[in-house]
Amino acid sequence: MDPSHDGRGHHQKGSFSQESSSYMHGDTAPPPPMGAPPNMMYYSPGMGYPPGAHAPPPPMPHQGYPPGYNPYPNDYPPQPQVYHYPAGPYFSNPPTYHNVDRTKAFVRGFVLCSCVIFAGLFAATLIMALMLHPQLPVYTVNSLSVANFNISTPLTADWNTTFSILNDNDKLNGVFTDFKVDLLYRDDALAMSFVPDFELEKKEIRRIDERMSSNGFLLPRWELDEMAKEQASGSVTFILRIASMVEFKSSTISTKMSLILALCDGLKVVFQNNTGNGALDNGGRPIICQLYM
């Protein structure tokens, strides 16, 4: 008897060759060993679906995006983010922390207060000036006479003039300094004198008498000839020029020093009987001078 056969027609374990040969002669293969049933929830692709299960519908084909549609960022491959920082000293210099608002508010308040103060001072000065309203003085020539008038080289003559100055202000006094008087023939000086400084009260008139001499004054020959022709006609016209620095003031306000120039033109001196003596022909009326500043 074959030792690999157990008497019941079955082969013993451990003989692969004999077992294979028995399959080949038409014997039926033993059933597979019983194992655990397959899990209905987990299965791999290709294994199919268990009996009774309904397969899901096939996926819809990819249709693409409609025109003008912006896909979500996840539809594209991620791109590296690039951060752009503003140029300039903002990030290069560390910020300083201080109260900027308070500083600006202080500067604005200071400027505003200064403007208000200056505006107030200007308004007060303007009001005072309008209230006081300084008036220029009035210059008049009362008389002019000459003696020993001799047209020669040099010219000789003795002059005597009287003029008046009126302070026409009723609230301001007038202070006159650097007072100078010149007697002119056309544009050349014939005589000169200086008057000491003085002050005129409100509405005050001062009468000034000045004596001058032409000794030492040289004139061009052609002017001497013109003067001789006028004297031969009986009269010669002269100009009196009065210059001074004037300041008006009161107990509360004062004006700046200003140069006032008074020109008293058209002083016609009439000579008597072709002599060297003459006097102003004004008909007894004072001659008003023109003022320039």
Automatic annotation (TrEMBL):
Residues 1-30 are annotated as: Disordered. GO terms for cellular component: plasma membrane. The keyword Membrane applies. The chain crosses the membrane at residues 110-132. Its main location: membrane. It comes from the Eukaryota. GO terms for biological process: defense response to other organism. Keywords: Membrane, Transmembrane, Transmembrane helix. It is found in: Membrane. The keyword Membrane applies. Residues 14-23 have a biased composition (Polar residues). PANTHER family: LATE EMBRYOGENESIS ABUNDANT (LEA) HYDROXYPROLINE-RICH GLYCOPROTEIN FAMILY. This is Late embryogenesis abundant protein LEA-2 subgroup domain-containing protein. It comes from Phaseolus vulgaris.
